[in-house]
Amino acid sequence: MSSTIPIRPSILYFGTPVVLLTTENDDGSPNLAPMSSAWALGQTIVLGLGKDGQTGHNLSRRPELVVNVPGPHLWRQVERLAGVTGRHPVPETKPAGCRYVADKFGEAGLTPRASEAVRPPRVAECGLQFEARAARVQPDSAKDFLIVEAEVLKVHADPAIVVPGTDHVEPGAWEPLIYNFRHYFGLSEELGFSYRSQTPR
Questions:
Q1: Does the global pTM surpass 0.90?
Q2: Separation between Cα atoms, residue 108 and residue 104, nearest integer Å
């Protein structure tokens, strides 16, 4: 085992998938926001959000959302959303230079597509789209963020990443965009599979 050195990184994004969240604003228009603190357990997706952003504001009033999962080819569109907010005026807690944008889909160059079980639209370019409802929205223990537990109601997948004749995503055909210490990455080649895999090679 190699030796280690103690460090104090300013952020702990050690390699997590990027998602684009769509929610509904007070006026009925969609908000689109990138985030990289998401994980799934069963049919629940848990999200960590900034407490002062438009997404948190929307979910505290209207629980419907879509968790859109982009592939690596969409990293530039994701990055176009990194320095903007749907909140007006821009909260003081946002980083310097952050600006208000009403049309986030237009800003990113992405296409809204009507959902089937919820009101916020899906992102047409994303290979996986999870229509969901927030069952719980609450502050984290330090009250710096919001923790959202979202129950998935419907899943949409690009046919190119689905094992034909099944409901399984083909891992060799699907690649999520990964946020790794504030840099964007895709996946490397497959190393192996879990004993629980339903799509072994």
A1: yes
A2: 6
